[in-house]
Every structure is written in C-alpha cells, then in structure tokens.
Design brief:
single chain; 323 residues; alpha+beta; Jelly Rolls; Arc Repressor Mutant, subunit A; 2 domains; 6-stranded antiparallel β-sheet; 4-stranded antiparallel β-sheet; 44% helix; AraC-bd
Length: 323
C-alpha cells in the first residue's frame, strides 16, 4: 500500500464513523437472487453475484479463480489478498479486481475481520450483427474504453477514489423499495461500479470527456443527502454547512441556485415526505410521527402540513383510503 493510501485510511479510522453498509447486513445475499443481465454498447453484462460478505476472524478463502470479472471492495476491517504469488494488505476504502483466470486467496484479520462488497459479473462481447439500429455510439465508445481498462487493470489494491462502494448501497435500496424503473436503476448502479473502478487506473489522456465535478452541485447533493439522513433531529443551516464545509451564507446561496429553494423549505419538504410515507404505511398516532420527524408537538405540524397538502394529516390518511 502506498504512503498516501495508508495515511488516508488512518485518518478514516480516527473519525469513528458508523458502518454505512449495515443496512445491507439484513439480507446480504438479496441481490444475488436477481437475474440481472443487460446490454451496454457492444457488450453483454450478466451479474452473477452482488452482495455484502462478512468474514469471520482469520477466515481464509483458499486459492481459486473465475472465468469472469470479480470486483472486491473493502468497506470495513482488515485482511490480505494474495494474487498469483504476491501478497497485499487490505483495509477500509480499498478495492481490487480479479479478472478472468487470476488466481487469488483472501484472508481476514484475526482482530479486525473484514467486510467485502463483491460484484461478480460476466462481460461478453456481442456480435456486431446484433446491434440495434438506435444504438448510442457515444455509449458504445465509453463501454469499449471501460472494458479495455478493466482488462488491463493491475490486480493490486487501490483506493476507491470514485466511491464505487456507494453504488452497492444504491442497488440495495432500490431492491428494498422496488421503485418504478427498478431494472434501469439496477443496471445503472452496476455500470457505475464498473466505470468508477476503471477510472481509478485510467491515465489522464485515456478519456478527455470525463467532466470535472461541479462543486455547487456536489455540495448541494451532500447537503440534501445529509438532510434526508438526519431530518428526524433538530437541524440548522449552520449544522449542515459545517458538514458540507462551506459557510452558512454560501450554503444558502447553493440551495437557491441549485435547488431553487431555501434551506428551511428543503428541510421541511424532506420531513413532510417522510411523514406522508409513515401516514400511509403505518397506523402510528400522528403525535408520535410528528415527534419522530423534527416537530416538537403536532401543533407545529398541522398548519405546515395543511399549507402544503391542503388537508390535515388525518384527512390525508382518509383521502388515500387508510383507516
């Protein structure tokens, strides 16, 4: 492991952050049951396994190989992987790819056993005669570039700089919620894992059209995600600005430019969405729901709710057929 990677991992440990993938531990192999296969450019992608694995202390998975691609991401814990005849240290935030026929052995640490997010997929080049008339040429070029990078990627562990791990959680949430467009959502999350892994080893000149991050948009997304995750507790503009690492005044400007809203209105919207969901999916008392989503008493909730939806929470339940 390089020195910058080692320092980054040490800094992460000092934060003592909770395990963000605990949600997937409920049903670690849920996504393995999905028969997910799709076309990407001139390639067929078939997902064989996509899950969270929890190693036992000192557990060893002996030398083996696959005829497909297997992506390994370490969200927590420590261990080692021996690829061919070279041993590498593994730790939080690292990932590695074992391509077709790469022999490897995994070993979990005795004191700090590791977790692994695994994507095991088959990537097959399709016959050009099967190409659809409306194929996207730009997507085809990007798919070819990504597969080329994966095929030539060195097997040594690297830092997950483009946060491909988060895509596993996105896929699991989609499986839980089964939203409209579930198949497309799953396809996009798998492609994002492939692309974000490939970018780590891409040379600067490999792809000139990968855009730089729009920091306003990025900070807006960080802020809104933090609000969604923490809407149940008291939140202030200053709290969220500190997490996003901008001034409160700057964050308020970001909400206006990127969300056409204010911080207060966005927070209120996030809370009301969660409240509406609970009103329709549970029979909990409105007073309890209000308390769980940032309203100290129902008296504060009622006027806000009625202003937005034109009816009281009780009427909202009746309107949607919930007794």
């Amino acid at each position: 492991m390089t020195e910058p990677h080692r320092n980054d991992l040490q800094n992460r440990k000092k934060t003592g952050a909770p395990f963000p993938f605990a949600r997937m531990a409920r049903k670690r192999n849920a996504l393995d049951r999905l028969d997910l296969q799709f076309r990407w450019g001139r390639y067929g992608i078939r997902v064989l396994r996509c899950h969270l694995m929890a190693f036992e202390p000192g557990q060893v998975i002996g030398f083996h190989k696959h005829s497909e691609f297997e992506f390994h991401f370490i969200p927590k814990g420590k261990g080692t992987v021996t690829i061919q005849d070279r041993k590498y240290e593994l730790g939080e935030g690292l990932f590695y790819l074992t391509g077709p026929d790469v022999i490897h052995e995994q070993r979990s640490d005795d004191e700090d056993p590791m977790f692994e997010l695994c994507l095991h997929c088959e990537i097959v080049e399709l016959d050009r005669a099967a190409e659809a008339e409306w194929g996207d040429k730009l997507e085809e070029r990007e798919a070819e570039e990504c597969v080329r990078l994966l095929q030539t990627m060195p097997p040594e562990p690297a830092l997950d700089r483009y946060q491909a791990m988060n895509c596993f959680l996105d896929a699991y949430r989609a499986w839980e919620e089964q939203p409209v467009g579930f198949y497309t959502t799953m396809k996009q999350t798998v492609l994002q894992i492939l692309l974000r892994a490939a970018r780590v080893h891409a040379a600067p000149g490999d792809s000139g059209n990968i855009p730089e991050r729009d920091m306003k948009d990025h900070r807006f997304r960080l802020a809104t995600q933090f609000i969604e995750d923490n809407e149940a507790r008291p939140l202030t503009l200053e709290d969220v600005a500190e997490k996003v690492r901008v001034s409160p005044r700057q964050l308020q400007r970001i909400f206006r430019s990127e969300g056409n809203s204010t911080f207060h209105d966005w927070l209120e919207h996030a809370r009301l969405q969660k409240i509406c969901s609970e009103l329709l999916q549970t029979d909990r008392p409105i007073e309890d729901i209000a308390l769980d989503h940032g309203y100290s008493t129902p008296n504060y909730l009622y006027p806000v709710f009625k202003k937005k939806y034109g009816m009281t929470p009780s009427a909202y339940r009746r309107h949607h057929g919930v007794r």
